Amino acid sequence: MSQEELQKIKQKNYAEAIRYMEKAKKTLEKAGLDEDHHYNSCRKVRNACKKAHHGVLIALDTYLLLNGMEKPKVSKKVDDYIGQIGKIDKQLSKDLDNLYHTLYMLGCHDGIQSARVVEIGFDEAYEVIDKIKPTQTV
């Protein structure tokens, strides 16, 4: 692929991943916070974390493509991603493992209501998504 084609892929997929994150943040806003920094709606936290997780998967698929590797086939198992990404970037692989436990396991499955934990998961998600951030052309 040419550099121009790769740049277009980055722009398209980065925008889509960010769009999912924005949807996730809007869903969290609807969950409402109490005075102890806990969300009021477990269901909305789960939905928000699922949206954020989907944005991360878009970024990971793009990251693998940009580095000449194939994304995991049918299943989207985190171990497949961690293994593939570990061949390129060991630190990102470790970060992805942490992100999986924070955002996916605690957020999507458990519906953790701690705003601090969810915020950490979202911050980690943005760090992964930024790996495919397109360069600005002047």
The arrangement of helices and strands along the chain is HHHHH
CATH architecture: Up-down Bundle
The number of helical segments is: 5
Can you tell me the CATH class?
Mainly Alpha
Q: Regions with pLDDT < 50 over 5+ consecutive residues?
A: none
Structural class label: mainly alpha
Question: How helix-rich are the residues, as a percent range?
Answer: over 70%
- In round numbers, the mean pLDDT is 92
**Which outline best applies?**
globular
How many distinct folded domains? 1
The name of the CATH superfamily reads Nucleotidyltransferases  domain 2
Distance between the termini: 22 Å
Write the layout of secondary structure elements.
Elements (H helix, E strand, L loop, with lengths): L2 H29 L10 H25 L11 H9 L3 H20 L5 H15 L9
Helix pairs in contact: 1-2, 1-5, 2-4, 2-5, 3-4, 4-5
Overview of the structural elements:
It is a single chain. This protein has 138 residues and is mainly alpha-helical. Helix 1 (3-31) packs antiparallel against helix 5 and helix 3 (78-86) runs antiparallel to helix 4. The protein is globular, with a radius of gyration of 15 Å. The longest helix is centred in the N-terminal third of the chain and has 29 residues, at 3-31. The model has no long low-confidence stretch (mean pLDDT 92). The chain has 5 helices and no strands. The chain has a single domain, classed as Four Helix Bundle (Hemerythrin (Met), subunit A). 71% of the residues lie in helices and 0% in strands.
